[in-house]
UniProtKB/TrEMBL annotation:
InterPro entries: Asp_endopeptidase, Peptidase_aspartic_dom_sf. Residues 17-150 form the Retropepsin-like aspartic endopeptidase domain. PANTHER family: ATP-DEPENDENT ZINC PROTEASE DOMAIN-CONTAINING PROTEIN-RELATED, ZN_PROTEASE DOMAIN-CONTAINING PROTEIN. This is Retropepsin-like aspartic endopeptidase domain-containing protein. It holds the Pfam family Zn_protease. It comes from Gimesia panareensis.
């Protein structure tokens, strides 16, 4: 039984290494680059979003929201829309639980693109506009907690 389980899981040496923070892209939301904290302690991923408005499109629930993609720069705004996948109770780092809308969108990191579930929450007071939880990179990347930006830093003009 143990050998079967080991065959199904990728070995650490087979995984691409990423740092504890990386520049990523969310092309489906119009975000070219955003700095994300890669957090192995968090299960789910979260994106800074504010001014949330729910609406219906073709009998499905959607959400329109705004993002400040750059830390400490509230004058830069990206407006986005996404279909609501579900609502989820999420416990913050302070221990407070809240219901948050969850969307699914593609993420790009180190030339790889895949869909991730993102909860939408106001992260204005947080150090990072995005938190990449372990479910998003599990069996895909290995995290080097002592390094950052394995994918490099985008040119200053492109950082959002």
């Amino acid at each position: 039984m143990r050998k079967t389980l080991q065959r199904d899981k990728k070995r650490k040496s087979d995984l691409t290494v990423i740092g504890w923070r990386e520049w990523i892209s969310l092309p489906g939301l119009g975000i070219d680059t955003i700095k994300a904290k890669v957090d192995t302690g968090a299960r789910s991923s979260s994106l800074h979003a504010y001014d949330l408005h729910r609406f219906e499109r073709e009998s499905e629930e959607w959400i329109r929201f705004k993002v400040h993609p750059v830390q400490r720069r509230t004058h830069e705004v990206v407006e986005a829309e996404a279909r609501i996948f579900e609502y989820r109770s999420v416990r913050s780092s302070s221990g407070k639980a809240s219901m948050r809308p969850v969307i699914v969108t593609n993420i790009e990191l180190l030339g790889v693109s895949w869909p991730v579930e993102l909860t939408l929450a106001n992260r204005d007071e947080m150090g990072f506009r995005m938190l990449l939880g372990r479910e998003a990179f599990r069996q895909r990347f290995f995290v080097d907690a002592g390094k950052s930006y394995y994918g490099g830093k985008p040119p200053r003009a492109k950082r959002t």
